[in-house]
Amino acid sequence: MSEPAYDALPELGTLGVPHAWDVLPASLGTLSRLSPDEVVHAAGLVRTGEVVPLNLSLDAFDPPLFGRAAVTHEVFPHDRNTFEDTLGSFNPQASSQWDGLGHVRAREHGWFGGTTDQAEVRERLGMHHWAARGIVGRGVLLDIAAHWERAGVPHDPFGGDPVTAEDLAAVAAEAGIELRRGDILCLRFGWTAEYRRRAAAGDDMPSAVKAWSGLSGAESTARFLWDNGIAAVAADNPAVERGPGTREDGSLHRRLIPALGFALAELLDFEALAASCARQGRADFLFVGVPLPISGGVSSPANAIALL
Questions:
Q1: C-alpha span between 297 and 128 (Å, rounded)
Q2: Which of 32, 184, 233, 258 could form a disulfide with 28 if both were Cys (CB 3.0 to 4.6 A apart)?
Q3: Rounded to whole angstroms, what are the CA distances from 227 to 127, 135, 175, 212?
Q4: Which of 284, 262, 266, 264 is nearest to 6 (CA)?
Q5: 152 burial class (0-12, 13-18, 19+ CB within 10 angstroms)?
Q6: SS3 state of residue 213
Q7: Could you read off the pLDDT of 181-227 as tens digits, one per residue?
C-alpha cells in the first residue's frame, strides 16, 4: 500500500501538524500497516521458541505514576470449593499499557479522523477495534541504553535526555537492522530497570519521575516514524517521548496519536528481551500484543510478548 510521505501530508488547522486522517482507517490508524504478509514474515522470525513476556505487574508502581489509581485485588470464595478474583480501581494505564486513539485529542480539531464528539470517538476509535484485530508483527528492539553505554556516553534514564531521529537511525544501523513497513519499534531507554533499582534502594519514587529520557518531541521524530512505515512504538519509559518536553519541540503525543494515528505502548519491560537479543546476536522477533476488549476504551494493559 502506497502512502504519501510525511512532508506531503496536509496540516491540521492552525497547529501546523501534518495529519493522516484521509490516509489510514480511523479505527486502526497505523496498525493497518500490519498486513497479512508482514505477519507471515514476522512468524518466520521464531527460531529458538523462547517466549519473553514484556509486561510489568499491575502493581509494579507504588504509587502509580501521574496520580493514577492503584489496582485493588480481592480473592473470594464463590462457593465452598471455587475461588474467584475481583479487581477494583483498575486503571489500564497504571502499568505496561497501550495508548488508544481516544487517549489524546488535538485541541479543538478533535481526535484522529476529526471526530469531536466523545461518545462517537469511543465507538469509532475504542480499544475494542484493536482487540478484535490483535497487534502482531515484526518487533524490532532498538537498545538505546546499551548503544550509549558502548559509546561511552553518560546516560541517566531519569535525566530527560532527548533521543532524536538521527539517534534511532544510528542504533538501527549498529544493530544491522533495516526498518521496514509494519515494524513494531521497541525502544529500551533503561527506565524500568532504573526505576526498580531505585525503588529497591528505598528512593522517593514519586519525586523521581519528574523527568525521564525518551524520544524528542520534534517534528523530525514524527517524520522518521511515519516515513519508515512504523506500525507501533513501544517504550520502557512513562511516555515514549521524553519528559518534560520543550515548547520548541512540541508534543510528540499530539503529533503521533490524534494527527497520525500511531499506536503507542508505554512502561513495557524490555530487560529480559534485551538480554536474549544480545545473546542471540539479533534485534528482530515476533511481537504479539492482545489489548483488552473493552468497548469504547481509550487504553489497555499491554498484554505483550516477544517470541524469538
A1: 7
A2: 32
A3: 25, 20, 20, 26
A4: 262
A5: exposed
A6: coil
A7: 999 999 999 999 999 998 888 876 665 588 999 999 999 999 999 99
